[in-house]
Amino acid sequence: MPERKLLDQVSDVARLRHLSLRTEETYRSWIRRFILFHGKRHPRVLDAEAIRAFLTHLAVKDRVAASTQNQAFNSLLFLYKQVLKIDLPKIEGVERARRSKRLPVVFTREEACSVIAHLRGLDRTIVSLLYGSGLRIMEAVRQSTKTSTSPAMKSLSLTARVKRTGAPCYPRRSNRRCLPSLNP
């Protein structure tokens, strides 16, 4: 039986390790870019210097954010350590992308409630879940298409919040009007 293609092997290992679909897609994308950057040479024949060159290129030429460069680096570490089973030496001399000095904008409770008040239907349900329970966007969208506002959604959001913080949390204002099935 012929050996599976490299990116298929990446998917196999990602699924074996129960990584999210988004993580798998991201890793495959960065690994593909790495291979193309080095003229379609197989990563098995590339060394730590090739990784350093790629990561430096991302920071200097492509001017990616530091988190993006870290994502690419973690993708390559996954490829070499988990898929190819190759231990890399320490990778030094990488030009690091600059961290943004901008602070994120955070809504006050009143601003968040104002935004939620202008939404209707499924959009309001999803945004209320995101705000009140701490679900990630894809978690809320996937669950809303599976369970809508059934009693199972109550269990889902409680589970999601308890896993992360140890206590459930709902938006005080919107849970009564928009999410009656989620009240504890």
Taking the alpha carbons of the first and last residues, their distance comes to 54 Å
CATH homologous superfamily title of the largest domain: Tyrosine recombinase, N-terminal domain
Domains (count): 2
Gross morphology is: flat
Helix/strand/pairing class, anyone? mainly alpha
**In percent terms, what proportion of residues is strand?**
under 5%
Report helical residue fraction: 55-70%
**Regions with little confidence, pLDDT below 50 for 5+ residues:** 155-184
Instruction: State the assembly state of the protein chains.
Output: single chain
Brief digest:
This protein has 184 residues and is mostly helical.
What does this structure look like?
It is a single chain. The protein is built from nine helices and no strands. It has 184 residues and is mainly α. It folds into two domains: 6-83, Tyrosine recombinase, N-terminal domain (DNA polymerase, domain 1); 109-182, no CATH class. It is flat and about 55 Å long.
Write out key terms for the chains shown.
mainly alpha; DNA polymerase, domain 1; 2 domains; 60% helix; flat
SSE diagram, text form:
Blueprint: H1 6-16, H2 21-37, H3 48-60, H4 66-83, H5 109-117, H6 121-133, H7 137-147, H8 151-165, H9 174-177
Helix pairs in contact: 1-2, 2-4, 3-4, 6-7
